[in-house]
C-alpha cells in the first residue's frame, strides 16, 4: 500500500485548507474557507435582505423565486454578485430567460427589480419596519 | 532522534489505523446513495442554472483546469453518469473504476453548482469522501479483515468532517478579530431576521438568549477536534450533539448541512449493521407471507 502518496496528498490538502481559512477565500473550493455565518454583526447595525420582484405579461407583480425550483440562481448568488448586477443590469436578462425556459407555461417576466429591505437594530432588537430600496431594474428584451 | 521517530511513527499510525472492510462496504452504500439525493435535491441547481450562463463565475479550479462551460446537455449527461456510477459503486462492484468515474463527474457537477457566486460550505467532507473511497479497492459486506488503506480513507473523511466545524471557528476569529467579538454580536439575529422560521422567529426578541447560543456554538466548534480521539459512549454523545445542532439550524433557518451529516457515519461501527440486516433478511425469508383472510 502506498503510504507516501497518501500522507503527501493529506499534507497538501490540509495546507491548502489552512491557507483557505487564513486568506478567508472561497476560491480554493472545495478546500476554501468555511465562512458560513462568520461575519460578525453589530448589535446596533442593520440587517439587509435582497430579493427580486418581476412584472409579468399577465400584469401581476410577483416575487422572483431565487431557488433551484424557480429561476435556478439562488438569492445568495444574487447577493454575492450584487455589485456586478447593479453595474450592468442587462445581466438580469439571464434571469428572465431562465424563468421562461424553465417554466414555459407561466407568464414571462417583462420587467425585473432588484430590491433590498433594511432593518435597523438597537441592542439586538429590531426597530420598526424595514426600509425598502430599488437597487436596479431591467426591462426584459423579448 | 528516537523520540522524533517514535512521534512520526505514532502520527503515521494514527492516519493509517486499520478499519474493517465490512465498514467500508456499508459506508459506500451510504455515501453513494446520498450522492443521488444530493444531485436531485440539494445541488439540483446545476441544470436550471445552466439556463443563465452569464452568471457563471467559476472558482479557481474551474478557471485553472480546462473544464467545459456549463450547458444543459452537459449537466444532464453528468446527472446520468453520476446516477449509474453511484449505483454500481454502492454495490461494491468495480469499486475503483466506478468510484473514480463518479468522483470526476461529481467534481465537475460541484464546480458548476458552486460557480455562480455563492459557495456553500457543507460539501467539504462529502467531496473528500467521494475522492478517497475509490482508493480502498474491493471490500465485501461479509469480510472480516481490516485494512490500512481503508483506515486512511476513513481518517480523511473524519478529519474533513471535523474541519468543517473547526475551520469555521477559525474564520470567525479571522473575520471578527476575536472569538468573543463574533459570539457577542448579532449574527443569529441577522440570520433569523433574513430567513428565520416562524418556529424560531420569537427568539429575536431575546438577544441574550442568542448570544448564549453563539457562545455554545463557537465553543463546540473549537473543541470539535477532540471528537477524533473519543470512543464509545462519549463519541456517540458527540455525534448526537453535532447532528442536534444541524437539526436546530434546519428548524430555525432551513439550513441542514445534510452533506456533512452523512459523513458522520465514518465515525460509527457500521459493520454491526451487517449481521442485523442478514438476520432481518433471513427472518423475512423464513416466514411465509401472512394470509389476509382465514382460508
Automatic annotation (TrEMBL), chain B:
Sequence intervals crossing the membrane: 21-40, 72-90, 180-196, 208-229, 235-268
SMART domains: HTTM
HTTM-like domain location: 16-272
Entry GO terms, CC: endomembrane system
Alphabetic keyword roster: Membrane, Transmembrane, Transmembrane helix
UniProt keyword DNA repair present: no
Membrane topology, record value: Multi-pass membrane protein
Localization annotation: Endomembrane system
Protein name: HTTM-like domain-containing protein
Organism lineage: Bacteria, Bacillati, Actinomycetota, Actinomycetes, Jiangellales
